[in-house]
Specification:
- It is a single chain.
- This protein is α/β, with parallel strands linked by helices and 462 residues long.
- It has 2 domains: 263 residues, 3-Layer(aba) Sandwich (Aldehyde Dehydrogenase, Chain A, domain 1); 179 residues, Aldehyde Dehydrogenase, Chain A, domain 2.
- Helix content is 42%, strand content 21%.
- A 7-stranded mixed beta sheet has the order 14-15-16-13-12-17-18, sandwiched between helices. A 6-stranded mixed beta sheet has the order 9-8-7-10-11-19, sandwiched between helices. A 3-stranded antiparallel beta sheet has the order 5-6-20, with no helix packed on it.
- α3 packs antiparallel against α6.
- Bound molecules: nicotinamide-adenine-dinucleotide (NAD).
- The site of nicotinamide-adenine-dinucleotide has 28 residues, from α7 and α8.
């Protein structure tokens, strides 16, 4: 696996300020596949300076030209699809088909959507005797997690570029090789130097330096709620803008009239995909007591079918954490109906697809984000009870409702405290705003709402 031993700053790969390196490990076989430099505050400073210097030029570039550059970036990503998918598989461990279709396919679509939005968005509007200008926020510090290594990057960088912002990216330490490939793609498109910069490194070092840097106008962070809280406090102290995409504990609510088998099967697939490392996964399945036993049986059978087809977790720490949650579920009295805490393989950070029945709303596994292939099935008495359980966590990122009648599902969805709800298996829409209620975050990504996160308004009165 090819890895750069420098940082991508001001349009070129430059040596890091320090010699420290981060090893990248393939979680499927625990082999080291490469290393990248561990950036310091000095590297971050150089990158932010480059981004600041590039800002006036890029902000003044006509949106149609910015759109053309983003379209070119999409095309380079598409041309290098196979190589990127293989890299994602090597450092994240996801099955190659998932890497091709989702990990690389989705960001190509998202990049395309921002090429189109940059070309069509009204960056000027009239309001009475005013002209309102939608101007770039400035220099963006983007900090991303490992669970969708390319998508998380593109979901920030593409709208920031469309808005006329310049960017410094600090990707997750587990998946920096995909981020380096992204930087190569940016370079290939001939984006002006300094518009996009990459600093690899540890969160508490490079990430924190970026969040704290006075030259950064907006910190856009995706990751855990714990780190998000810290970043928001740092940004708040400096009166800096912040966008946060944090954790989730989403409910999959199956109302009595729904197609039970379809809803359960889709629910299990949703949780097992990407080995459960999806912030919007429907990790709590809510079933009416009259259908509960049948649902548990269907879910256990569906999970058992996954067997070996599921990838590993990203690293040993995540594997330990997820196994700890499974043990806690057992200790608190939930009934294991599929999987369990034992490692299914000797090598690699694998966890068996796991399903718990008899989970009650206050149990740890029903409240905390596990970020692994673990589904909890809860029983409800009536719709109000289902709603109370669905809304009964600190999170509010996503969810699903299944009902016999679409209108019934929509009525329930309107009462949910969450940012996204799939109705009767509705498909993921890369143009729909994505983000959280409550502690799942601040702000939205994707589509036009994702673009406006990177804009600020100036009103001219006539
Ligand atoms: P994390 O918060 O540990 O790390 C995320 C990023 O922040 C990484 O790049 C990391 O290096 C950096 N970081 C860590 N400490 C930092 C600090 N003190 N200052 C600045 N940056 C720092 O999260 P993770 O383990 O990488 O990802 C898993 C979590 O991310 C889960 O909780 C998941 O729900 C959440 N997530 C949310 C979304 C969403 O869109 N809402 C998407 C993906 C993941």
């Amino acid at each position: 696996m090819k890895a750069h031993d420098g940082m991508y700053i001001d349009g070129a790969w430059r040596p890091a300020a320090d010699r420290d390196a981060i090893e990248v490990v393939n979680p499927a076989d625990e082999q080291v596949i490469g290393q990248v430099p561990a950036g310091t505050a000095e590297d971050v400073d150089a990158a932010v300076r480059a981004a600041r210097a590039a800002l006036p030029g890029w902000a003044a570039t006509p949106p149609s030209e910015r759109a053309a550059r983003i379209a070119a970036l999409r095309d380079v990503l598409a041309a290098r699809k196979e190589e990127i998918a293989e890299t994602v598989t090597a450092e994240l461990g996801s099955p190659l088909e998932l890497s091709q279709k989702v990990h690389v396919g989705l960001p190509i679509t998202v990049a395309g959507s921002y090429a189109e939005l940059a070309a069509t968005y009204a960056f000027e509007e009239k309001a009475g005797n005013s002209t309102v200008l939608h101007e770039p926020v400035g220099v963006v510090g983007a900090i991303t997690p490992w669970n969708y290594p390319l998508h998380q990057v593109v979901a920030k960088v593409a709208p920031a570029l469309a808005a006329g912002c310049t960017v410094v990216l600090k990707p997750a330490e587990d998946t920096p090789l995909t981020a380096q490939l992204f930087a190569e793609a940016v370079h290939e498109t001939g984006l002006p130097a300094g518009v996009f910069n990459l600093v690899t490194g540890l969160g508490p070092v490079a990430g924190q330096a970026l969040a704290e840097h006075p030259g950064v106008d907006l910190v856009s962070f995706t990751g855990s709620t714990a780190v998000g809280r810290q970043i928001a406090a740092t940004a708040g102290a400096a009166v800096k803008k912040v966008a946060l995409e944090l954790g989730g504990k989403s409910a999959n609510v199956i109302l009595p009239g729904a197609d039970l088998a379809k809803a359960v099967k889709a629910g299990v697939a949703n949780v097992m995909s990407n080995s459960g490392q999806t912030c919007s996964a429907w990790t709590r399945m809510l079933v009416h007591r009259s259908q509960y036993d049948e649902a548990v049986e269907l879910a256990a059978a569906a999970a058992a079918k996954y067997g070996d087809r599921i990838g590993p977790l990203v690293n040993a720490k995540q594997q330990q954490r997820v196994r700890g949650y499974i043990q806690k579920g057992v200790a608190e009295g939930a009934r294991l109906v599929a999987g369990g805490p034992e490692s299914p393989r000797e090598r690699g950070y694998f966890v068996s697809p796991t399903v718990f029945a008899d989970v009650t709303p206050e149990m740890t596994i029903a409240q905390e984000e596990i970020f692994g292939p673990v589904l909890s099935i809860l029983r409800y008495e009536d719709e109000d009870d289902a709603l109370r359980i669905a809304n009964g966590t600190v999170y509010g990122l996503a969810g699903a409702v299944w009902a016999g009648e679409e209108g019934e599902a929509v009525a329930f969805a309107r009462r949910m405290e969450t940012g996204q709800v799939d109705i009767n298996g509705g498909r993921f829409n890369p143009l729909a705003p994505f983000g959280g209620y409550k502690q799942s975050g601040v702000g939205r990504e994707l589509g036009v709402h994702g673009l406006t996160e990177y804009l600020q308004t100036k009103s001219l009165q006539f």
